[in-house]
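Before going further, learn to read the protein records used in this course. The integers have meaning only within a learned vocabulary of local backbone shapes. To see the layout at work, look at the sequence and tokens printed below.
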Amino acid sequence: MVHKPRYTEQYSVELAGGTLGELDKTYSLAWFTFDKPLEPGETRSGKLSVVREHKGFRAGNEDFTLLNNGTFINNGDLLPHFGYYEGYQIVDRHKRRKHGLEPLERANKLEDDRYYNESFFGKGTGFIDFEATISTSEDQFAIAPGYLTEERVENGRRIFHYQMDAPMVNFYSIMSARLEAKKENYNGIDIEIYYHKTHDMNVDRMIESVKDSIDYFTEAFGPYQHKQMRIIEFPGYRSFAQSFANTVPYSEEIGFITDLRDPENIDPVYYVTAHEVAHQWWGHQVGAANVQGSAIISEALSQYSALMVMEKKYGAEKIRKFLKYELDRYLRGRSNEQLEEMPFMRSENQQYIHYRKGSVVMMSLKDRLGETRLNKALADFLAEFKYQSTPYPTTLDLMAHISQDVTDSEKQFVSNLFEHISLYDLKTTEVAVAEQQDENGLYTVTLTIDAKLNRSDSKGKETEVEFSDKVDIGLFSADPEDLSADNTVLYLQKHNIKSGENIIELKVKELPKFAGVDPFVKLIDRDSGDNIKKL
């Protein structure tokens, strides 16, 4: 079966020993029939031809991928798909019941090894060799993954030839626009930013983030597989950035025209750039099997990687606001769950889990295991599965690497994060400060902390479990959420916290203005707003 993408007006499929049948216009499907069935493992070569064009104006439902200045389209939106098309399945459970159909699973089960040789991108999207020739208007620059080997003008058309020298995922973009360029060679890697001529205000910040990211990821996880990293602006009709092999299309709306002057905001341009560069390791060097948890490997690991670059630049204290934002988004997401929340390692393409919870989980692991140990585990994981497709890795493999050489308490901590839906409830109920200094010139600060750990099932039913663990206690000279304040930490150490009421007594030289438990959001806390108390 062949599925024609939306907006592709004309197409043809030519393969040796077969013919394409009539298109079903309702579902854009057609049967391709081979004269002689393909044998298992047999391959056939052929040619796909498509025409995607605009004629006049639509009354809505516009195609924002093909534009006069700023075309950005991927191969899935341009070329026909082969095989069963899941996009037309009835999703609504009530309608499926009406037709006598079983409910659809959002993802294949984690332990179902039938899907371990299939990428999370779906069938037919493994690692490939890539080469492309693109022609465009004479005044535009066309770009695709790979390296530019030739550029020429023929009959008023500018022609570009690209060729990749390393395996890449069968998922690529084609872009064309009138753009300016800023280029810089950094340690043998060509960094190139392509931008609309009046949108240059954040270009240097992007270059800085690319440099910092490549430095950190190379040292932590292994070498960058390309000799080039390109970021290309596309119009703000769509608001995202996306990482293809050595190529990152990036919306003007979330990067090139973002106002970075507010010191109270975490730098989104630096962060998003780091996240997309991280995908060159997580997603483009190591893939994931098409089972539960696949997006943890691509997205949660990219979140962690970007956050570590952010931490190196801005300091661990400045990451608190971002992690609190991520935690709150996760909690809101789980409250809006339509089917069932899954444990972290079994996330079923649930963005509030693999993005939002993923940030907090991975930084929790870094805090507990240490940066060196966690990065070593991730580097070993990547090395084992680099460009591996038989099989692709799963979160079972990831967890196995993270859990190597851990203590019993660390193993339980990892299990709480990955295998269970664990919700801490930490609250600073009282902070008492002695008015007089002792004979050593120290003030006594006493914190009363209530603590609880619940485990939730997929429907939200919670059960309290006993816990005793090391948790950060912090004292501050200013609000830790104030990103413009410097050197606010007066005291930060881990103390044993157990279920119930905890009394923590501290001796400090300077009176704090804020005090609390887990101040830098290292745990999945159902209400992080009551962790810190203002004195």
Summary: The chain has ten helices and 27 strands. The longest strand covers residues 443-456. Residues 1-55+75-104 form one domain.
